[in-house]
Write a structure and sequence with these properties.
By secondary structure, the protein is an alpha+beta fold. The protein has helices at 5-15, 23-44, 59-76, 79-89, 95-107, 115-130, 137-144, and strands at 149-160, 178-189, 197-205, 213-219, 231-236, 239-244, 255-259, 265-269, 281-282, 285-287, 293-295, 297-304. The chain is globular, with a radius of gyration of 36 Å.
Length: 306
């Protein structure tokens, strides 16, 4: 009996040794798994970094941190705290000279075009100059911060005596003194622009992870660019405390926060730069979206007007 050719082909097909796995399937599975993992990590549930050490910041954020330290020093005069904060940044061997170098870098950019930027550079200069350090900002700010003057012509009434003519054979009647208005050229200095802020709004939220926190955001006039190193004052029950923006740059250079106590009312202002907020912020209890009890929290926004 002659074997059927079709049966021989079918037998070879099903009797071939099977592969343990397919390389194409492995590569395809890894590719899809990595793509899905990256999408989940970047888009669906990105990791929010907290408690970043100052020295781990990028150069731009470290410069903003230096500005915040110097403005804090300008407000409280604590040299030791300022130097320790600079050491924590691990800038270089001489942290005070690092302030001079940072001021030089900022002064050569448009950073000094705003009143807040110019105030920050001057605070840095006051710090490192007192420690016998120098930087290029010493020359740049000196020439860039001359107080402008306005020339005004004001007519001031003055008395000009008209002398009688010398005696002649034909006497002339005496001439009385005349009062005339002589324009005098007066130089009237105008004041340098001052940093000033307005209260924009205050909104509330209730979260277990952020219970009883006042979050403050301070922006430039554009309402977008944050301002580091701005001092904020909280007052309550004959007490007060100051805190500064920029010390948590992972939340934004214009961000600062303050922890409230239950059932206490707080008033906020920027000392010497803004009026107090119109209504106190009261730390009352609230219920979160998942039914947990917490203290109500606030987001407060200030904006520069110059």
């Amino acid at each position: 009996m002659t074997p059927n050719p079709n049966e021989r082909v079918r037998s070879r097909r099903y009797n071939r040794p099977r592969r343990a796995f397919s390389w194409l399937g492995v590569i395809l599975g890894l590719t899809l798994g990595m793509a899905g993992g990256f999408y989940w990590a970047w888009e669906v549930s990105p990791i929010v970094e907290y408690d970043t050490e100052p020295w781990q910041l990028n150069p731009q954020d470290r410069a903003a941190f230096v500005v915040a330290i110097m403005l804090r020093y300008d407000a409280d005069g604590d040299v030791g705290a300022a130097v320790q904060s600079l050491i924590d940044l691990r800038l270089q061997d001489d942290p005070i000279q690092a302030v001079a170098d940072t001021a030089c870098q900022l002064a050569t950019t448009g950073y000094i075009n705003s009143a807040t930027g110019l105030r920050a550079i001057r605070a840095m200069m006051n710090f490192y100059q007192a420690q016998a350090r120098i930087g290029c900002a010493d020359d740049l700010i000196q020439s860039a911060s001359i107080v402008p003057t306005q020339i005004v012509e004001i007519a001031v009434a003055t008395t000009t005596a008209t002398l009688p003519p010398p005696d002649t054979k034909t006497p002339t009647p005496g001439t009385a003194s005349d009062t005339t208005a002589t324009p005098n050229r007066l130089i009237v200095p105008t004041s340098a622009p001052q940093s000033d802020f307005i209260f924009v709004n205050a909104t509330t939220f209730c979260e277990s992870a952020n219970s009883g926190v006042i979050q403050v955001f301070i922006y430039e006039i554009d309402g977008v660019s944050g301002i580091p190193g701005q001092v904020i004052r909280a007052r309550w029950e004959n007490q007060e405390n100051t805190f500064f923006t920029g010390l948590k740059p992972e939340r934004g250079i214009g961000y600062a926060d303050f922890d409230m106590q239950p059932d206490v009312s707080y008033l906020l202002d920027l000392p010497g730069a803004s009026d107090p907020i119109p209504q106190p912020l009261v730390a009352v209890s609230c219920t979160t979206s998942d039914g947990q009890r917490a203290l109500i929290s606030y987001r407060v926004v200030f904006r520069s007007v110059s």
